[in-house]
Write a structure and sequence with these properties.
Length: about 160
């Protein structure tokens, strides 16, 4: 098994000419190759070097990014086909609620062209969104046409009156 002798040393700095203690230990040939003027200041630190041994490293063997890449699912080639575009019930309900109020707003301000466009868009929304179940909280719920109902149970249903 090969041995490694590491010496503490000091060297003369080329710019100031002052002696400086090295912050590391090195072999004699490495010190001589790096510094012109140097001297050994203590006994060597002798290490037995095993080429097959694994030394301490503060990092993981496999970097975190590679671990995350191994665990994640492969990307879908066409993710838009997994969930086709469209409106769900809640989205349709909220759009109808907004458009109905916007039609009223435009009518009161005599903006008839905007009112007709909003009414046309309201008519084109799907009529499948007849009920909407809200999160469980006993508060006042509002139907599509502005009728307020009080609910005390855990389930709220907002019933839409179809055109």
């Amino acid at each position: 098994m090969p041995r490694l002798e590491l010496f503490p040393f000091r060297y003369r700095e080329p710019f100031t000419g002052k002696w400086a203690k090295a912050r590391y230990r090195a072999e004699r040939h490495e010190i001589a190759a790096r510094y012109q003027e140097w001297e050994i200041t203590g006994p060597p630190e002798i290490r037995d070097v095993d080429p097959n041994a694994r030394y301490f490293t503060p990092w993981k063997v496999v970097p975190h990014a590679e671990l995350m890449r191994m665990e994640e699912l492969p990307p879908e080639m066409q993710p838009h086909l997994a969930m086709p575009p469209g409106t769900d019930e809640l989205e349709a309900f909220l759009a109808k609620l907004f458009l109905r109020r916007y039609v009223t707003y435009c009518a009161r301000r005599r903006r008839y062209s905007q009112m007709q466009a909003a009414a046309h868009l309201l008519a084109t929304l799907p009529k499948a969104a007849q009920t909407w179940t809200a999160p469980d909280c006993p508060i006042r719920s509002e139907t599509l046409y502005g009728h307020v109902t009080d609910t005390c149970d855990k389930r709220r249903e907002v019933v839409a009156i179809s055109h």
